[in-house]
Write a structure and sequence with these properties.
The complex is a heterodimer. Chain A is of the alpha+beta class. Chain A has eight helices and 20 strands. Chain A has two domains: about 230 residues, Rossmann fold, CATH 3.40.50; about 120 residues, Beta Barrel (OB fold (Dihydrolipoamide Acetyltransferase, E2P)). In chain A, α2 packs across α3 and α2 runs parallel beside α4. Chain B has a single domain, classed as MetI-like fold. The mean pLDDT of chain B is about 85. The chains are: A alpha+beta, B mainly alpha. Chains A and B meet through β6 and α2 of A and α9 and α10 of B. Bound molecules: adenosine-5'-diphosphate and magnesium ion (MG).
Chain lengths: ~350, ~280
């Protein structure tokens, strides 16, 4: 059980590639933090710095209050699950799990006991004698987790552990990881580029982009109040409609394009110098309505009828501003239709177009 | 390639058979000649086995051939075996360790050392033979196993092969081992060495034959007849002055010279092929 504190972590790779520009987060005991962001944003780098596999250019990393910047991975009491599992190919499942314990000079009968217990938790008992290549992808994944669990470390580190699995197995393993983490209560840092995985797993998310923290918050906070344009576009599927608009000085409408006014209020408190802002609306918050209540009209161009939802792609009437709407259930709408839509004001997000910061 | 064309199959098999005949025929002639009395083979090539097999082989194995200074062939074979094994074990140990250093450790001038090793590929024994002789002579290693073996041990080829193999091992494996508390020694012995097993086997076969067949170097550094290797010894049997060439004994020696390398190939054939074709990690 442990806390992890990262303060102003900076990483510069040889060749002056700056991968991280100062990451800070305090992770509580037993918490599951998901670091999420697009590929190449520095998630793995951050995780590997916590693991001790990568040096820290500047900043501090504490595990349970202890400064670990200069410690060897083996001395940090962490366990890591790699994307490609990194199982020792020539060792049996049992040996793979026992290897870390053996190196720590733990007595043989205790190793036996712990491996058996872990195998039971992960339902790997019947595979203990097999080599990794004789296992399916999901089973290998479980062995990789077993190798981490059996060590009873202070912190689990996962680097995209599910991305080599097929979609169905991924959902299943996701639940399993969540259940395990709840049960064992071990502080966990989980890295993924998949926002659905992040939303379902994390107690809190750390959203990263280009080596910087965009936002830290619970899945719902991040969904309801994205603090930056990047987060707004990254979280949610289909992603949020982000439309450049001008704020009318009156504060009760925004102007889209040249002169299309959208009579939206609730913006009284927003002050922005040049009044050019970005309006964010989630597809699932836009609703179809009667013509007389419509805030805007959507020229329907493409439909995805998914059964549970109908996703409508089109452009705003008389403009070429693209808009996506997700209507729940099966909706009688067709390509070429002019669909009246509306949205409640509390579901509007306003961002500064230049800095990307949230304004409301 | 799954093809079913009878004509092609017939053709390829014929081709293979012709190849086999070409390779096997001289060996057959040597084997047959080694079973005849000397006067039977001086003028003609014999087509079928004679009756002097036991006599010929026991003569050269135990007392040796007089015109070749009478060194028993078993001694030559032993010398060759020691030299070949020394070269194999030395080459493999040194090159696997150097490859480990080059791939897994960051030290100053790492690439420089790699290229230095690589460049020695251009300097086989024959090219550097005089300076090497000088060094070995100055060290007082003439007529010793060490003198036979040491100069042939340094191997860029094997280092290079191991390096290429290590580069295919995912970095995460080394990192997982680090997290699991394995230091450099443990990682090498617990993980790298077992994973290199098939590569080692393949190199063993190739290098054993390389070592066994060494001719020029042993010829130079061994003047004492008790140190003669079989390849050198055989050559000495061919040129006899004022005497009839004893082809039957020479042929028997040639057959004996083939036996050990052949045994190694047969015993390690499966591992050898696996080492050459295996990509599974
Ligand atoms: N060993 C390295 N040397 C130089 N640059 C690296 C190295 N590893 C990663 N990078 C760079 O650092 C950035 C972040 O990489 P990474 O942490 O792997 O991203 P992510 O895991 O989020 O996809 C990338 O731009 C990548 O090119
Ligand atoms: Mg990564």
């Amino acid at each position: 059980m442990a806390t992890v504190t990262i303060k102003d972590a900076v990483k510069t790779y040889p060749g002056n590639v700056q991968a991280l520009h100062g990451i800070s987060i305090e992770i509580e005991d037993g918490e599951l933090i998901v670091m999420v962001g697009p590929s190449g944003c520095g998630k793995s780098t951050m995780l590997r710095m916590v693991a001790g596999l990568e040096t820290v250019t500047s900043g501090d990393i504490h595990i349970n209050g202890e400064w670990v910047n200069k410690k060897e991975p083996a001395d940090r009491d962490i366990a890591m699950v790699f994307q490609n599992y990194a199982l020792y190919p020539h060792m049996s499942v049992y040996q793979n799990m026992a290897y870390g314990l053996k190196n720590r000079k733990i007595p043989k009968d205790e190793i036996e006991q712990r491996v058996q217990d872990t195998a039971k938790i992960l339902e790997l008992e019947e595979f203990l004698k097999r080599k990794p290549k004789e296992l399916s992808g999901g089973q290998r994944q479980r062995v990789a987790m077993g190798r981490a669990i059996v060590r009873e470390p202070k912190v689990f580190l996962f680097d995209e552990p599910l991305s080599n699995l097929d979609a169905k197995l991924r959902v299943q393993m996701r639940l399993e990881i969540k259940r395990l983490q709840d049960r064992l209560g071990v502080t966990t840092i989980y890295v993924t580029h998949d926002q659905v995985e992040a939303m379902t797993l994390g107690h809190r998310l750390l959203l990263m982009n280009e080596g910087r923290v965009e936002q830290i918050g619970t899945p719902l906070e991040v969904y309801e109040k994205p603090q930056t344009l990047f987060v707004a576009g990254f979280i949610g599927s289909p992603s949020m409609n982000l439309i450049p608009v001008r704020l009318d000085p009156s504060g009760n409408q925004v102007i889209l394009g040249e002169s299309l006014p959208l009579p939206l209020n609730n913006f009284e408190n927003i002050v922005n110098g040049d009044s050019s802002v970005t309006l964010g609306m989630r597809p699932e918050h836009l609703e179809a309505c009667e013509t007389e209540n419509a805030l805007m009209f959507l020229q329907v161009e493409l439909l995805e009828k998914l059964g549970a939802d109908t996703v409508v792609y089109g452009s705003l009437d008389q403009t070429d501003t693209a808009l996506t709407v997700r209507l729940s259930g099966i909706h009688p709408v067709d390509t070429g239709d002019r669909l009246p839509v509306t949205i409640t004001p509390e579901h509007l997000h306003i961002f500064d177009s230049d800095t990307g910061n949230r304004l409301n | 390639m799954v093809e079913n064309r009878p004509l092609l199959t017939l053709f390829t098999h014929l081709f293979l058979m012709v190849g086999i005949v070409i390779v096997v025929f001289p060996i057959y002639i040597a084997l047959v000649a080694s079973t005849h009395e000397v006067q039977d083979i001086l003028t003609t090539v014999q087509g079928w086995f004679g009756s002097a097999m036991f006599e010929n082989y026991s003569t050269i194995l135990i007392s040796g051939k007089e015109s070749a200074r009478g060194i028993p062939v078993w001694m030559m074979m032993l010398n060759s075996l020691i030299m070949a094994l020394g070269i194999v074990i030395g080459k493999i140990s040194i090159s696997i360790i150097s490859a480990y250093a080059i791939v897994y450790f960051r030290f100053p001038f790492r690439m420089f050392f790699f290229w230095l090793i690589f460049v020695t590929l251009m300097l086989p024994v024959e090219v550097r033979i005089l300076p090497t002789y000088e060094v070995v002579a100055n060290l007082g290693l003439l007529n010793s196993y060490a003198g036979l073996i040491l100069p042939l041990i340094a191997s860029a080829t094997a280092t290079f092969l191991f390096r290429q193999f290590f580069l295919t091992i995912p970095d995460e494996l080394a990192e997982a081992a680090r997290v699991d508390g394995a230091g450099p020694f443990r990682f090498f012995f617990d993980i790298l060495l077992p994973l290199s097993r098939t590569n080692i086997a393949a190199l063993f076969v190739i290098l054993f034959i390389y070592g066994w067949n060494q001719y020029l170097w042993p010829l130079l550094v061994t003047t004492d007849e008790s140190m003669t290797t079989i390849v050198v010894g055989m050559q000495q049997m061919l040129y006899v002055q004022d005497n009839i060439p004893e082809w039957h004994l020479t042929m028997a020696t040639a057959i004996l010279a083939m036996i050990l390398p052949l045994t190694v190939v047969i015993l390690m054939q499966r591992q050898f092929v696996k080492g050459l074709v295996e990509t599974e990690k």
